[in-house]
Structure formats: C-alpha cells, structure tokens
Specification:
Elements lengths: L1 H33 L3 H35 L9 H7 L4 H50 L28
Length: 170
Amino acid sequence: MASLMDELLLTMDGEAEQYEKLISLNGKKKDSIIYKKLDVLEDITVKEQAIADTLRVLEKKRLSILNSIGQVMGHDGEQVTVSWMIDNLANQPVQQKKLSQAKDKLVKVADDAQVLNFQTQNLLRQALEMVEFDITLIKSAKQAPQTSNYGRNAETTGNILGNRGFDAKQ
C-alpha cells in the first residue's frame, strides 16, 4: 500500500508539473496572438498538445493507482477518489497530509490553467472579430456608394460612382 501511495503522489506531482508548463506557455501564447506571430503560436500549440497528451497518460495512471488502492483496501468496484482516500487515511496522518497537499496543489494549478485558457479564448475571439472587421472594412472600401441619380419614377437609378476620384478635365 505504501508503494501505491508513493506512486500516486508522484503521479499527482507530475500532473501538477505539466499544468505549470501549460501556464508558463500561456504568456508566450498571448504575446504571439497580440503581435500576430503565427509561427510562434503554431510552435506553442504543438507543445501544448504534447503536454495535454502527457496529462492524459498521467490521469489514466492516477485512476489506475486509485483503483488498485481501492482493491487493496477491500473496496473493489467502488469509485475511489483522492478525496475519498484523504478521508479514509485518518489513522495515517502523515500520508493524509501529503496526499491533501498534493491534491490542493494539483487543483490550484489546474484551476489557474483553466482561468488562463478562458482568458486566451476571449483574446482569440477578439482577434477574430478584429480580422472580420478588417475584412469588412476592406470590402466596403472597394465598393463605391450609389449616386443620387433619379429615374422617371423618382427612384434612384442605382448607378455606382467610379474609382477615378475627380472627373475634372484639365
């Protein structure tokens, strides 16, 4: 059981380290979005994907370890969580404290990463809105306004001004 507990703590520490890596990449990601450095953003995205893959592996490992601990403790088939482990380690205060600290650290860095991801998502949304605005502005600049020429029925003829600017002869 002690080796399983040590392995669980190491796995949770590994997860926290991966989340910290994500957090450290976020500053570079924001700068690359703001300054439109798409090559840097692409590199960061590749790194983030690798970290996400590692996090998935560590999460599966953590769940497997928790399942093994549940079997050792006679709770086979039950959903064993870290919180459940903390509650059931009352007779082992040292292990309980270590596990509680590891859980608190993991929850904090995961929450921090989630907040930063939300901020980055909003930044990307704003960047896309600016691109859309720029496209609309460019399209409208190429279209000339209709003239105020009226036909027989007192409706505009729909003639469009040319791109020549002035029609003055010199």
